[in-house]
Amino acid sequence: MEPLQTTTLQLPCFLHGSYSTIESATKGEGHRCGEQYQLRGSFPQPHELRAVAPGEVVFTHNVVDFQDELPAWRLYMLSEVIMSMCEVDEKNHRYLSRLYETTFRETAWGALYFALSGHAPESAERVAPRIQAVLQFWDSLQHGRYLHKKLNTFMSLEELMTAACGWAMDAWCPEGGTSVPSRFRVASERMARATREDCVEAILRQLPRILPFADRNQLNHPEVVMDSTAWREHLATLDAAEFDRISGVRPGAVLGRLYGWDRELDVH
């Protein structure tokens, strides 16, 4: 069934208010979700949704949220729901977190949160449905006015997704496209069907753009890990789990692997 598109953007009421109000409400919602899952094997829907009024700002990252007492929409605090839910059943926290994502990615607010959140691993397999979920709700989400990581920089949905997830377009649709949604659509389709070799080629294509961001002062073996020709051999040595972490080609994840590789060379 196709997700319902609305002419407004609606978010759960537990994501609106002062910081302390939302903190309390999201923790309560998390416990409610965890307890219902234990009883019924499913998650409850939010008690109430409310339309985001024209001109209202949706905070999507805490780095720009300094006025704790200001009543506002704080989408990034959905993380509190997930953490509190997992506290109810700590042994199964990874499974619960993934199931919550799968369930609420079928909503506009959940789709946007999980596309922006960077929940690991950001593999090609997991990033693809996150982007595709946002595309399904693109019309509704366009009604938002967003603040992400830059103070006083209010963004449209297109600007937000480009700032937060543009790396996926660069890696998986480098040839460009007629629009941002069309590029994301092509990129997500390629990610969804990518083989390991496809991911290797995408990583190698992006290395010239990623390597300049590495801090050479933190590297003991820059002559190795900064050599793009050595990366193909290195990628072949990674086990499935380690490779999965970088297969989406998010620059931060690739740089993390670079620093990890550098430390591994100290041991050998």
Largest sheet, in brief, is: 5 strands, mixed
Secondary structure class reads: alpha/beta
Shape designation: globular
Report how far the terminal alpha carbons are from each other: 54 Å
Radius of gyration, CA atoms, in whole angstroms? 20 Å
Strand order of the largest sheet: 2-5-4-6-7
Helix share, percent: 55-70%
Unreliable spans: none
Strand tally: 7
Mean pLDDT: 94
* Helix count, DSSP H or I runs of 4 or more residues: 13
Which band does the percent of strand residues land in? 5-15%
Number of domains: 2
What sequence of helices (H) and strands (E) makes up the elements? Answer: EEHEEEHHHHHEEHHHHHHH
Q: What layout of secondary structure does this protein have?
A:
Elements: E1 10-12, E2 16-17, H1 19-40, E3 49-51, E4 57-59, E5 72-74, H2 78-88, H3 93-104, H4 108-117, H5 124-136, H6 138-141, E6 145-147, E7 154-155, H7 157-172, H8 180-192, H9 196-210, H10 222-225, H11 228-237, H12 240-246, H13 251-267
Parallel strand pairs: 4-5, 4-6
Antiparallel strand pairs: 1-3, 2-5, 6-7
Helix pairs in contact: 1-2, 2-3, 4-5, 5-8, 7-8, 9-11
Descriptive report:
The chain is of the alpha/beta class and about 270 residues long. It is about 55% helix and about 5% strand. It has helices spanning about 20-40, 80-90, 95-105, 110-115, 125-135, 140, 155-170, 180-190, 195-210, 220-225, 230-235, 240-245, 250-265; strands at about 10, 15, 50, 55-60, 70-75, 145, 155. The strands form two sheets. Strands 2-5-4-6-7 form a five-stranded mixed beta sheet. A hairpin with a 6-residue loop joins strand 6 and strand 7 (about 155). Helix 1 packs across helix 2 (about 80-90), helix 2 (about 80-90) crosses helix 3 (about 95-105) and helix 7 crosses helix 8.
